[in-house]
Amino acid sequence: IIDTERKIVEDGESFYENAIIKVRTYIDISYKLPVFAEDSGLCIKALNYRPGIYSARYGGEKLSYKEKCKLILKELGDEKDREAYFISVMALSYKGKIYCVEGRSYGKIAYNIKEGYGFGYDPIFIGENGKR
Asked: Is residue 39 annotated as a catalytic residue, yes or no?
């Protein structure tokens, strides 16, 4: 069930809180069906784990992801420690309880953008296996 008219305010202080906010926004209209929601982002060690929960809005909501990638590369500069991870927290509301699970994909931030690769921050992320 998707209600595009409902405005979700992601004002939590963690991925868990934001995922739960999204689930709770739709519980009342779910017709007693399970409700799934998620929150995800990119965390970069050298940037104090930014953009983090602000990944979608990093640098301003009007920036494209290509511009956000450029901003991150500029902020990192010649930094050697480019350790980073993508995180996703899934929340499920079922029979009056909310359950959460977290997944992470570890890697590092490249020194340049790989044009035409993936979406979001994918063009600057190199996974643990060395692949983009």
From this structure: yes
Q: Which of 3, 11, 39, 122 is catalytic?
A: 39
Starting at the edge strand that comes first in sequence, how are the strands of the sheet with 50-51 ordered?
Answer: 50-51, 35-44, 83-94, 97-109, 125-127
CA separation for the pair 118, 30 (Å, rounded)? 32
What is d(CA 129, CA 127) in angstroms, rounded to the nearest whole number? 5
| 79 exposure class (CB count in 10 Å sphere: 0-12, 13-18, 19+) | middle
Q: pLDDT, tens digit, for every residue of 37-93?
A: 999 999 999 999 999 999 999 999 899 999 999 999 999 999 999 999 999 999 999
Token pair for residue 9? Answer: 């305010």
Amino acid at 44: I
